[in-house]
């Protein structure tokens, strides 16, 4: 295998080429730490509202929890007002972000209705003004995450990436789907290739990378410098170790067994518990556990018990039973 050079963004030299995607409702500190420990070169936070940051809304500020062990860490902002985004990007840098990422891809109505997220793909001048304002104000590298375009008739990722570059962005991530596609259909990797030809910035390709072989194929087919993994990391933080191993050796590692997965669930729970308290952590672990357990013998029974359990002791007992193979 030929070695892929590590990703560099501005002055930030990263160790590796596979990064964790921003994942609302998932990508908080405990999960980011797990992904870093498994070899993610960089981890992105959940998206944060620029207005929430500026108005010091407790829910937004709580999302800034970080730890030296996860660094380098990118915090992601959404919003549509250049001044507010610039102010918020400065706050993020002051709060310890190594990199500030701007969300120009979120498809949800709550965000696009206010002209944020993917809606900005339809107003390239405004998008460029936002990037320029943030790049001027923020002392850390500013990156952008875009989609292929708004819909099939308006695929403009290359133009948007060029504008972001002109405005001072340090890298661009391309989720190779249109807003109209949301998360369905196949990612159109040729759009990533078009962006790599259009700009001199590092390009991070995103969409449908789940295995080491997927990562190698995206790097080879599109010429991008790094890959971003979203859904392929849900309950699978080991995907980063697998990608690293595959790029080094050409060998795909097997999915971990029940002991390793139970260990990761326990570690994830302990992190969430420290951040949010026992009850919230236990409830949030229902969805994570379902992802971790996918494909394991006894998964359905473990899931049923985890969804019904009402104490930490019971939760940890289920994990022990899983480890012993008592549920399969
Ligand atoms: C649960 C979930 C939450 C997401 N939250 C964000 C977000 O906060 N910001 C963002 O830019 N993209 C977000 N995305 C999109 C992902 O970052 C990524 O672009 C998308 O899932 C495609 O990559 P994949 O095929 O590897 O999943 C989210 C996706 C999922 C599934």
Describe this protein with a few key phrases.
alpha/beta, binds flavin mononucleotide, 14 helices, eight-stranded parallel beta barrel, 328 residues
Overview of the molecule:
The protein is of the alpha/beta class and 328 residues long. It has helices spanning 29-37, 50-54, 58-62, 82-94, 109-112, 124-137, 157-166, 189-198, 212-222, 239-249, 258-276, 278-293, 299-308, 312-324; strands at 8-9, 12-13, 18-20, 42-49, 73-78, 99-104, 142-149, 171-178, 203-206, 226-229. Residues 21-26, 46-47, 76, 103, 105-106, 145, 175, 183, 206-209, 229-232 line the site of flavin mononucleotide.
| Gyration radius, in Å | 20 Å
Globular, elongated, flat, extended or rod-shaped: what is the shape?
A: globular
Helix content: 40-55%
Main beta sheet, described? 8 strands, parallel, barrel
Topology:
Elements: E1 8-9, E2 12-13, E3 18-20, H1 29-37, E4 42-49, H2 50-54, H3 58-62, E5 73-78, H4 82-94, E6 99-104, H5 109-112, H6 124-137, E7 142-149, H7 157-166, E8 171-178, H8 189-198, E9 203-206, H9 212-222, E10 226-229, H10 239-249, H11 258-276, H12 278-293, H13 299-308, H14 312-324
Parallel strand pairs: 3-4, 3-10, 4-5, 5-6, 6-7, 7-8, 8-9, 9-10
Antiparallel strand pairs: 1-2
Helix pairs in contact: 1-11, 4-6, 6-7, 7-8, 9-10, 11-12, 11-14, 12-13
This protein binds flavin mononucleotide.
